[in-house]
């Protein structure tokens, strides 16, 4: 049975909230789309776990994107998600990446961009430099800068699973919270093996057995790509028809590929005519 769930929990006697996420099949869907080096697989796993954790803090319906960019051999790693805990991701790189490459060795002078896009309301974007040794520490920096809320994050990934934990002072409690410091120290002791092999309630019991913890029902996390033939057709429509006709004349078809899931959508000359006719009666064949 695969582990792809997000758990929220609260401490009854402290103004602190927590989350725990365990990913397996959804993570495998992302890293199987390309022949990623080991270090990139791991960073995508950590990004998936962190995006799931961040999505759970959203107070709206909409999308979130956590993106790493830099001038190193890895130019991009991004995970997109939504409030339904549906995630997808991709990375772009050049050359050889060592298995134990650090964040800075992969991205060089890099930064993290977190974009929140509500279904209703204004888009928000926050940026923080990749100046710490780990993605978790960079995310803690982001929360300190953007929300001024003490936050503890732990992230793990190997070639099969990814997992993470998130601890944060409740917004109403301000910055000083002795209980958070105590709980943060306990959370720091969590091991990768525990998050990969134990049930969530067992992890929480091991970490916080002297605390009164309220664990909520899990939310399923899944891989979901939003690509489709219709979306590809819309993209084609943005290109001058003469250019598309030239491709049809040379190759007999137009192919549109999705980086996220490796799906390929093929359009023949009849499809292309229907696209540019832009008539509801001229639907693109599936």
TrEMBL record:
Signal recorded as keyword: no
UniProt PTM: Under oxidizing conditions two disulfide bonds are formed involving the reactive cysteines. Under reducing conditions zinc is bound to the reactive cysteines and the protein is inactive.
Keywords annotated in UniProt: Chaperone, Cytoplasm, Disulfide bond, Redox-active center, Zinc
Recorded GO MF terms: protein folding chaperone; unfolded protein binding
Disulfide bonds: 225-227, 258-261
Any one Gene Ontology BP term: protein refolding
One Gene Ontology term, aspect cellular component: cytoplasm
InterPro entries cross-referenced by the UniProt entry: Heat_shock_Hsp33, Heat_shock_Hsp33_C, Heat_shock_Hsp33_N, Hsp33_helix_hairpin_bin_dom_sf
Location(s) in or outside the cell: Cytoplasm
Role description: Redox regulated molecular chaperone. Protects both thermally unfolding and oxidatively damaged proteins from irreversible aggregation. Plays an important role in the bacterial defense system toward oxidative stress.
Family statement: Belongs to the HSP33 family.
Protein name: 33 kDa chaperonin
Organism of provenance: Shewanella fidelis
Name of the gene this protein is made from: hslO
């Amino acid at each position: 049975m695969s582990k792809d769930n997000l758990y929220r929990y609260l401490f009854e006697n402290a103004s602190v909230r927590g989350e725990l996420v365990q990913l397996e099949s959804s993570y495998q869907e992302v890293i199987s789309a390309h022949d990623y080096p080991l270090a990139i697989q791991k960073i995508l796993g950590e990004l998936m776990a962190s995006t799931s954790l961040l999505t759970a803090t959203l107070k709206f319906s909409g999308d979130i994107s956590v993106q790493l960019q830099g001038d190193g051999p890895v130019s991009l790693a991004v995970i997109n998600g939504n409030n339904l805990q549906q995630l997808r991701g991709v990375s772009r790189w050049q050359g050889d990446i060592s298995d134990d490459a650090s964040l800075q060795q992969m991205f060089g002078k890099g930064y993290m961009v977190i974009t929140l896009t509500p279904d209703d309301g204004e888009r928000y974007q926050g940026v923080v430099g990749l100046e710490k040794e780990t993605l978790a520490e960079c995310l803690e920096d982001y929360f300190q800068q953007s929300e001024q809320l003490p936050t503890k994050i732990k992230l793990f990934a190997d070639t099969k699973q990814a997992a993470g934990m998130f601890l944060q002072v409740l917004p109403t409690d301000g910055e000083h919270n002795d209980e958070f410091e105590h709980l943060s120290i306990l959370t720091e002791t969590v091991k990768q093996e525990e998050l990969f092999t134990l049930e969530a309630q067992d992890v929480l019991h091991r970490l916080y057995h002297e605390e009164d913890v309220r664990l909520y029902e899990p939310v399923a996390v899944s891989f979901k790509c939003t690509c489709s033939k219709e979306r590809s057709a819309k993209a084609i429509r943005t290109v001058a028809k003469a250019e598309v006709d030239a491709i049809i004349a040379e190759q007999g078809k137009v192919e549109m590929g999705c980086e996220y899931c490796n799906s390929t959508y093929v359009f023949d000359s009849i499809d292309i005519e229907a696209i540019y006719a832009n008539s509801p009666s001229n639907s693109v064949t599936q």
